[in-house]
Design a protein that fits this description.
CsbD, mainly alpha, YjbJ_sf, single chain
């Protein structure tokens, strides 16, 4: 998913991300604000998985 799509649908994705990646905090999601690389980094950090899997 490219950054423009993520930013455009951020409010919709926010709930889906919280459901799928429950270890992400509300602060994490608030700081992401549609930035894909930040999201990937936080998923890696919280779940201990490789960038490819995140």
């Amino acid at each position: 998913m490219n950054n423009d799509i993520i930013k455009g649908k951020w409010s919709q994705l926010h709930g889906q991300l919280k459901t799928q990646w429950s270890k992400l905090t509300d602060d994490d999601l608030g700081q992401m604000d549609g930035h894909r690389e930040y999201l990937v980094g936080k998923v890696q950090e919280r779940y201990g998985i490789a960038k490819d899997a995140a």
